[in-house]
Design a protein that fits this description.
Blueprint lengths: L2 H18 L6 H16 L2 H4 L1 H22 L9 H50 L7 H26 L3 H35 L8
Amino acid sequence: MSKRVSLLVLGLLGIALLVGCGGEPPQAEMDAATKALADAKAAGAEKYASSQLSSAQQAYDQAKGAYDAEADKMFKSWDEVSPLLADAKGKADRAKSAATQAKAAAKSGADGAIANAAAAVSTAREALAAAPSGKGTEGDIEQLGADLDAADADLSAARSAASREDYDTASAKAASAQTKAVAVSTGVEQAVAKYEELVEKNTPWYMRM
């Protein structure tokens, strides 16, 4: 082997050593950070942990930018990239955890509101069914029935929203249903009092107890 060829081989070996001195790219860490961010979004972080997700997204963008920039270099060093990827993954994991907890709390609140509304509707329906209807109260009872149907519709809408995991809407609709049902119960009490007053008024004095 000539001296010139030997020098060329040594030069190429030297370049190879320099190029490879940075080690293998942290692909597994990059993949883990990417997956963690996707998992946070899938857990509902955009709605339930928006500030944490924003922080995680910024950290990820910074880490990916550093990763891509280093990958384009001839002489690579991943020492500064790996900590950035770890930070991005950690923030994404925290965003996912926060979203999961907030979503569970929203579900619990919606479930409780629906249960309260269902109880109020049931109570109102029983009261309405037992309410006397006579001359002077027919219109009141009819209107109360329509109001109770509206409460029932809100309750159905609340349950439908909860099944779609739209817990804000579910809670709002359940609250509306409960308010309407309570108003019906109050209206029934007033209708009963009105009926009894009319009965007494139209009963001869000698038949009154």
